[in-house]
Design goal:
Blueprint: H1 3-25, E1 27-28, E2 35-36, H2 38-67, H3 86-90, H4 92-102, H5 109-138, H6 145-152, H7 156-176
């Protein structure tokens, strides 16, 4: 890999990590699980950068937040792992990865749509599990699974509405702004 390509790769990873942080601040604050636009940027990082580098962008975002940069929806720092919403953030890594895998070497809108839905599942699954664990073991607020699901899935309608838009944007970005780490016209995978 040459130096120009290394710099381009680092800049792209940093850009997607920064956009994920911006998505945290474009929010509707509600208790426990705020409504944000992060899911769109998580998905787009996987589509544009590919599985490995999309996940790397999310790892950079998570690491920066845990180091204390106030880039999560409610701030940052190592104590953030005790926040009820931290499980969703953990899901950003597999979500970006799966979005990159499912949209690798395809032009089919249906694949982008499926990738957006799969990325959503990869965020919500650990998110709801973490939410329930924090309620029960950290906050001492025993909740039923039904109560946790109602609260944990409250942002889901917004994210479901965004799936077709995210799929469209992902397809357009990938075709119009090709990204490659190997010097060829293929996308990173």
């Amino acid at each position: 890999m040459n130096n120009a390509l290394n710099a381009r790769l680092l800049a792209a990873v940093a850009l997607m990590a920064a956009l994920t942080a911006v998505g945290a601040w474009l929010r509707i604050p509600v208790p426990y699980v705020p409504f944000t636009l992060q899911m769109s940027f998580v998905y787009l990082s996987g589509v544009w950068l590919g599985a490995r580098y999309g996940a790397l962008a999310q790892l950079v975002y998570i690491s920066a937040g845990l180091m204390g940069f106030p880039i999560f929806a409610k701030g940052g720092g190592p104590h953030y792992v005790l926040e009820p919403s931290f499980g969703y953030i953990i899901g950003f890594l597999p979500a970006a990865y799966i979005a990159g895998i499912l949209t690798r070497r395809t032009d089919a809108y249906a694949r982008y749509f499926v990738a957006a839905a799969a990325a959503l599942i990869m965020v919500y699954l650990p998110g709801v599990v973490w939410l329930h664990a924090v309620f029960d073991y950290v906050l001492g607020r025993e909740t039923t699974l039904a109560e946790t699901l109602v609260l944990g899935l409250s942002p889901l309608p917004k994210d479901l509405v965004l799936i077709p838009l995210n799929a469209y944007l992902g397809k357009q970005i990938k075709s119009r702004i090709p990204f490659s780490s190997n010097g060829h016209s293929e996308h990173i995978s």
